[in-house]
From TrEMBL:
This is Crp/Fnr family transcriptional regulator. The lineage of its organism: Bacteria, Bacillati, Cyanobacteriota, Cyanophyceae, Nostocales. Keywords: DNA-binding, Transcription, Transcription regulation. The keyword Transcription regulation applies. GO terms for biological process: regulation of DNA-templated transcription. One of its GO terms (molecular function) is DNA binding. It comes from the Bacteria. Residues 115-188 form the HTH crp-type domain. Pfam families: HTH_Crp_2 (PF13545). It comes from Chlorogloeopsis fritschii PCC 6912. The keyword Signal does not apply.
């Protein structure tokens, strides 16, 4: 159920595991996972099957079931991922990690609180660009390869709505869409977008 590569040992004796996109990281109460490479998201879903994204995490972040009381709960790989295990006996004060989780939850809550999906999407793209983007000639490249369905699930919207808004943003010159679901956020235009 959890496709991954064999466990390998690094010279500093931490255990490393590799996961493919769309696979799930195993959940164990006594283990946290430190992301070395790649991007994951924590998800849950409503009774009707609607998926809800709880957070999006990248290299240096720590994730695990111990941070949540939400049921059901999964950690899905959005890209190829390498993680190392942080066993319970090494959970020395993780104040910074806990603060990062709280701050991200608040940031996503604020993004989802805007009155229109268009504004939520623009705010989400700006947040993703700051957290995971890299500068390119005409803006910030969000190189996460998120599908329109992934974005819809983050904003509790529909794929059709996200596709329509992305097309509109591209036509207005606020973004460029590249192959493999990548987006370039054009800084000059998007940061001055009037809400």
């Amino acid at each position: 159920m959890f496709p991954s590569s064999p466990v390998t040992n690094h010279p500093h004796k931490s255990i490393s595991r590799h996961f493919q996109p769309r696979s799930f990281i195993p959940l164990q109460q006594n283990i946290l996972w430190k992301l070395e490479k790649g991007i994951v998201r924590n998800v849950t879903w409503h009774e009707d099957g609607t998926l809800v994204t709880l957070g999006v995490w990248g290299p240096g972040d720590i994730v695990g079931k111990a941070f949540s009381k939400i049921e059901p709960y999964e950690i899905e790989c959005l890209t190829k991922v390498e993680v190392t295990i942080v066993p319970a006996n090494e959970w020395y004060p993780l104040t910074e990690v806990l603060l990062a989780h709280l701050q991200q939850a608040e940031e996503l809550m604020v993004i989802r609180s805007y009155k229109t999906v268009e504004i939520m999407l623009i705010k989400l793209l700006g947040w993703l660009a700051k957290k995971f983007g890299r500068e390119v000639e005409n803006g910030h490249l969000i190189d996460l390869r998120l599908t329109h369905q992934d974005i819809a699930e983050m904003l509790n919207s529909t794929r059709v709505t996200i596709t329509r808004i992305l097309t509109n943003l591209e036509e207005r010159g606020l973004i460029d869409r590249l192959p493999l679901h990548r987006i370039v956020l054009k800084e000059e235009q998007i940061w001055h977008y009037e809400i």
